[in-house]
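1st attempt posting a full record on here, be nice pls
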Amino acid sequence: MKVVCLDLEGVLLPEFWEEFSKATKIEKLMLTTRDVPDYDALMKMRLEILDKNNLGMEEVLEVVETMEPLEGAREFLDWLRERAQVVILTGTYYEYIMPLMKKLGYPFMCANSLKIENGKIVGYNLREKDGKIEMINRFKEAGFETVAIGDSLNDLKMLHGAGKGILFRAKEELVRSEPKLLSVKTYEELKKILVKIL
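the predicted structure (as tokens):
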């Protein structure tokens, strides 16, 4: 049995922090793991900006309300779940991403948790360090063949650790720097590759 492990933002959903950046007009929040490989540094920067601008969960959830999955994402996910076990491995947070999971049909997801006090985001708890590759390794130890799909720098360990790794809608510089990984831009291209693998 094969398990397909997908990153969430950039693969099935828009990047939340990019959407939040547009809504708040804070340009620095546009940075994601596509730009900054050090996740802790990225999150600390985000939390400092939120604190400085007096932004909390209320404003975060207002932006989430306006978001929709990427065009074709739900259909692709439904197609994939008919052919393999599917797991979302993401660095995002349950506290704000769950409303969007309904729009994707509530797939199984491993995410992280925020520390919230009086409506303010004061910190975060990672489910585990390097959670994506850790889950890939556990699936392999349990006898599953793994396929991983991601778009960012923080997906690379997962993509290289899986039996097959696929970059999806990744920035061109990442595609060029990772010639051993397959790279596609559309769900239709992704389906064609997966039909051969699954």
